[in-house]
Specification:
Oligomer: single chain
Order of helices and strands: EHEHEHHHEEHEHEEEEHEEEEHEEEHEEH
Helix content: 10-25%
Number of helices: 11
Largest sheet: 7 strands, mixed
CATH class of the domain at 177-222 and 326-417 and 447-482: Alpha Beta
CATH topology of the domain at 177-222 and 326-417 and 447-482: Cholesterol Oxidase, domain 2
Distance between the termini: 26 Å
Strand content: 15-25%
Length: 556
């Protein structure tokens, strides 16, 4: 079935990238059809974070029948939001496991994301010039800085100006205050010449742009019904709707980018209705993919035609390659002795902890690995005393010890850069189809010695900082999590100046198809160690300025 109306633009995906693209293009006067694979969301019904664990049959855990098909981040509060593996499969190479966390709902992963919002710097954009590895981005910090400003002003980022050259300051609301455990950890950092700062977070700490300040009412990763946490459902999509230029179509599972056989340009999108499984073709003058790194790449690789036998915009053969993300899992957990037995405060709904910016290989290479890592740190009493399983004992004595330790928890988790390597890639598995008959993605991803060496250093350094702070070590973990665990998939349609070695130009425009744009994390050249969402939105906003200008000039 074909929809007769020809839109100015079709945007695929409604999360950080897709929501931003819809908002920017609609505000610039373009008529936009937004396709989302998941269902619509009613926050008053779908965000159930005020329920207590005892309200659920399995005390907040997934039921045994559902657990094998949902990612590690899902629980009883959120299981209805995630993509179920039985309906959304993918495959991996033997011996190379991969964790792919996906949502199927309007708003995408912004509904449950970690909210850490950090700018990248030229230490990241020009990393090859710094240490000789890989490729520099074809843009600099100067080119994207105005768009960081734009996104921060729209989203509302809590933080503090810290004047760190490789972690640029932004436009901040007041930061989330440090708690006692973090002040103790900060003293340990200072003894070693390192810095612990207020983390920068997409949660508003005062009323802002019609949204209510966060009042710490519940765990942010289970949805936010006060709209204090940025998500596209609460911010960018309503702004796009307000223009009258947006048509939102949920339950639309994209199969391919349509190609005009005469011009080779993108002609629209072919997709399935998720409920009826009816195939639909919607036509447009330009296509913007913002479905998330791996989904956008899957769509492009599945978009095979006479003009593009290896997938649309893939004359370079680079599409799907140079997958990058962040390592995580290594670090340490301890107890601050002076906090044992103190009064337990309400900190479960605290929206963010603290941050130790990268300090390895910043000016010179002082470690036997490339690039660097940062720590995301937390302290205080959450809903469940996470140290309980490390406490010895039985019965009343055990319960007393757990309660005594409850407010004293301090944790440090490392986030490190995974190097861009051609061999880390994704491809189409033609032997496995999803319920709509679309070939699934196959992952070919593994960590190398650089990541393993970095992980060991993360654990050693976390222990060093904790001991300097007088914190008792409970757990010290040097092991890496499975690839994909960070949920920061990036890089499979990288940007560059040379069409022979990249897929996109500096405005996220496909070299081969001038009216096709890819505005999510797939455009990344290197991962940095900063969380990527703020940069994704800034790059998308920059691309949309270019799209609007080119479209109105008739050059697309």
């Amino acid at each position: 079935m074909a929809e007769k109306k020809v839109q100015d633009a079709i945007v695929v995906g409604s999360g950080a990238a897709g929501g931003m693209a819809a908002k920017q293009l609609c505000e610039k006067g373009l008529k936009v059809l937004l396709l989302e694979a998941g269902r619509t969301i009613n926050p008053s019904k779908d965000f159930i974070h005020h329920k207590w664990p005892y309200d659920f049959k399995y005390r907040g855990k997934l039921s045994p029948s559902k657990a094998p098909f949902l990612p590690y981040t899902a629980d009883a509060w959120t299981e209805h939001l995630y993509a179920n593996l039985s309906d959304h499969p993918y495959t991996t190479e033997p011996g190379k496991p991969f964790v792919w966390v996906r949502l199927r709902a309007v708003g995408g992963k912004t509904l449950i994301w970690g909210r850490v919002s950090l700018r990248m710097s030229d230490l990241d954009f020009k990393a090859k010039s710094h240490d000789g590895y890989g490729d520099d981005w074809p843009i600099s910090y100067k080119a994207i800085a105005p768009y960081y400003d734009l996104v921060e002003s729209m989203v509302g980022i809590s933080g503090n100006a810290d004047h760190i050259s490789h972690l640029p300051d932004g436009k901040f609301l007041p930061p989330v205050p440090m708690n006692c455990g973090e002040h103790i950890l900060k003293k340990g950092c200072e003894k070693l010449g390192r810095r612990l700062i207020n983390n920068r977070c997409a949660v508003i700490t005062r009323d802002y742009n019609g949204r209510q300040a966060c009042h710490w009412c519940g765990y942010c990763g289970r949805g936010c019904d006060s709209n204090s946490m940025f998500n596209s459902l609460a911010v960018t999509l309503p702004m796009a709707m307000k223009t009258g230029n947006l048509t939102l179509r949920p339950n639309s599972v994209v199969r391919q980018v349509l190609v005009d056989p005469h011009t080779g340009k993108a002609g629209g999108i072919g997709f399935f209705d998720a409920n009826t499984k009816q195939y639909v073709e919607a036509h447009s003058k330009l296509v913007v993919l913002g479905a998330s790194t791996l989904e956008s790449t899957r769509i492009m690789l599945n978009s095979i035609s006479t003009q593009y036998p290896n997938g649309i915009a893939n004359s370079s053969g680079v599409l799907g390659h140079y997958f990058i993300e962040h390592i995580m899992g290594s670090g340490a957990v301890g107890l601050a002795p002076t906090l044992k037995g103190k009064r337990i405060e309400n900190e479960d709904g605290r929206p963010i902890g603290t941050y130790i910016p990268r300090f390895r290989n910043v000016n010179t290479r002082e470690k036997q690995f490339l690039r660097g890592y940062a720590f995301q740190c937390n302290s205080g009493a959450g809903l469940f005393p996470g140290t309980a399983k490390e406490v010895p004992g039985f019965g009343a004595d055990l319960k007393s010890a757990i309660r005594n330790n409850y407010p004293a928890l301090v944790s440090m988790g490392g986030f490190g850069e995974v190097l861009a390597r051609y061999d880390n890639h994704v491809s189409i598995d033609k032997n496995r189809l999803d319920p709509w008959g679309i070939p699934v993605l196959k992952m070919h991803v593994a960590y190398g010695e650089n990541e393993r060496a970095m992980s060991r250093d993360i654990a050693d350094t976390a222990e060093e900082i904790m001991r300097a702070a007088g914190i008792e070590i409970l757990v010290r973990n040097r092991a890496l999590r499975t690839p994909g665990w960070s949920i920061h998939e990036l890089g499979t349609a990288r940007m560059g100046n040379d069409p022979k070695t990249s897929v996109l130009n500096t405005f996220c425009q496909a070299h081969d198809v001038k009216n096709l744009f890819v505005v999510d994390g797939s455009c990344f050249v290197s991962a940095s160690n900063q969380n990527p969402t703020l940069t994704i939105m800034a790059l998308c906003a920059r691309a949309c300025d270019y799209i609007a200008e080119e479209y109105k000039a008739g050059r697309l």
